[in-house]
Amino acid sequence: MTFLPNFLTNLNLNRKMTNFKFILLITILFLIISCSGDDDPVIEYIIITETVTETETVEVDPYADYTLEGNITADKTLDSSKIWLLKGRVSVESGVSLTIPAGTIIKAAPGTGADASTLIIARGATINADGTADAPIVMTSISDNIQVGGNYPSSGPALNVDTRGLWGGLLILGNAPCSFSGDLTELQIEGIPTSDTNGLYGGTDAADNSGSVQYLSIRHGGAEIGEGNEINGLTLGGVGSGTKINHVEVLGNVDDGIEFFGGTVNATNLLIWGQGDDAIDIDQAYAGTIDGALVILTSASDHGFEIDGPEGSATGRFTLKNATVIGATDDCDAEGVDGEMADFRKGATGDVLNILFRDFAGGKDVELDASADAASYTAKTLTFVNIDIIHPVKDGVVCSNVETLDKIFDDKSDESSFEADALTFAEVVSEQQDGNGVDPSIFSWTFYAR
After folding, report:
1. Residues 6+ apart with CB under 8 A from 142
2. Does a structural domain hold residue 60?
3. Are residues 136 and 74 both part of a single domain?
4. Which of 8-22, 221-235, 333-347, 416-430 has the lowest mean pLDDT?
5. Distance (Å, rounded) from C-alpha 211 to C-alpha 214?
6. Which of 3, 168, 170, 273 could form a disulfide with 296 if both were Cys (CB 3.0 to 4.6 A apart)?
């Protein structure tokens, strides 16, 4: 019968196929109708079997080709169009350069202990991290939802200044002189296991060059590596004057914001907000200049400045100038249990000038911690010039619990004229004076300003 071939011809198998279904024609049995004699008709069937293929979804690791892990042993330049993952303790080894272009975002994996995500620039290595005001470099936690371009410096709702300790921090180590106990020439930086020699710092080259860091925001760090031992937001150990450090922001760090362990590097325009310990910490006879700093304390914070003297026979004299420190005060009451203005300890030696302390509740002070500091002040190896105080105000009235200058400037040993001299180098003012403190507009690029 002629209709059967026509039926098969018109059977459009291609049209029956889709991306998800394949039709397999297993058996075609012709329908044969026998008309001969009294034989019963014989009927055979077309059997069609359908097979469904499922597509497997493969999860792609967005950091597969953009992870910093282990030791970096050859020069490396990051791609600023990608987000980079910092995974564990990463060291740039001596003789190697790491270049981080403007606008680069590095997100650190979580963790605590000796392998907390941390970036170390070892002695003899170089970092070239030159952001700009329009395209800062950001180092933060992987929990931060900041993306490349378009939304700097937005972050997830949980990642504000009170989110701390999600990763380690940035450590830059150099060959510049430091004053170590026992007059050692090198020492292991705090926060790094002694088994890792990339953690050594100190030397004899005052002009040592570890590279350049500009317009860098470091957020939510300070992971604990041991009981009472956390990593600073930015650690500078034995860093020399050939290194460039300017326009750096540290926010929400568990330990200090920025700590200078000896060295001679100069640093300008630093912002520290909501650290868990001290904002700017100086140790081991740091002998550089810090020019321009804005410190904003919160209820978690300790001192605005904590300044220690030499630990060995080597001496060094710092300069700290043009800085504003804002206290954590709410309705005339201090927030938190610490939140002091500044503490000078262990025979600190340096010059402090053009500083504005504002909005500190009563009982917060600038201390000479012990006899050694009184001796430094008396010998004029520790000096104070042009220090202004702006008291907190509630409903337009200065808070009643604030103290006079001779109480705010406190020699704990009572062995110097520091308290009486406060009237000669300090003044209570109602607003910021020209040439004192720091111009806050310098920090318009920061997370804090947004």
Report:
1. 85, 107, 108, 109, 110, 166
2. no
3. yes
4. 8-22
5. 10
6. 273
Cα 78 to Cα 84: distance, rounded to the nearest angstrom: 8
* Domain shared by 105 and 43, yes or no: no
What is the b/e burial string over 88-109, where b = at least 16 CB atoms within 10 angstroms of the residue's CB?
A: bbbbbbbebbbbbbbbbbbbbb
Q: Which pLDDT value is given to residue 58?
A: 52
Residue 374 corresponds to which tokens in the numbers above? 């009184």
Residue 448 lies in a domain: no
Task: Catalogue the E-assigned strands of 220-288.
Answer: 224-226, 229-230, 234-237, 244-251, 258-261, 266-273, 280-283
Q: Which of 447, 162, 168, 163 is nearest to 328 (CA)?
A: 162
What tens digit of pLDDT does each residue of 88-126 get? 999 999 999 999 999 999 999 998 787 799 999 999 999
Do 313 and 280 touch, CB atoms closer than 8 A? no
282 and 261 in contact (C-beta within 8 Å)? Answer: no
Contact 323, 342 (CB under 8 A): no
Sign of CA dihedral 141, 145, 149, 153: negative
Cα radius of gyration (the chain): 33
How far are the Cα atoms of 16, 40, 144, 214, 447 from residue 152, in angstroms, in the given order? Answer: 51, 84, 12, 16, 8
State the pLDDT at residue 450. 83
Question: In which element (H, E) is residue 422 found?
Answer: helix 418-425
User: Are both 83 and 38 inside the same structural domain?
Assistant: no
Q: How do 258-261 and 280-283 pair as beta strands?
A: parallel
Residues 6+ apart with CB under 8 A from 194: 188
Report the C-alpha dihedral over residues 332, 338, 339, 344, rounded to 10 degrees.
Answer: 130
- Tell me, yes or no, whether 20 and 113 share the same domain: no
Q: What is the tally of structural domains in the chain? A: 2
Instruction: Give yes or no: residues 243 and 268 share one domain.
Output: yes
Per the prediction, the chain carries an average pLDDT of 88
- In which domain, by residue range, is 27 found? 3-52
